Amino acid sequence: xxxxxxxxxNIVATYNILYNASLMxxxxxxxxxxxxxxxxxTGNSNL
Length: 47
Description:
Elements: H1 18-26
């Protein structure tokens, strides 16, 4: 899955509100894995 071994992933946090996670991603804190099209990430979005 995702082309890598799960043992190599460094998961340090989880989230239950994707919008909050997207703000952290925007600030360069890390990456968020989520379902596609859950939030607006089009060109007119700030995310």
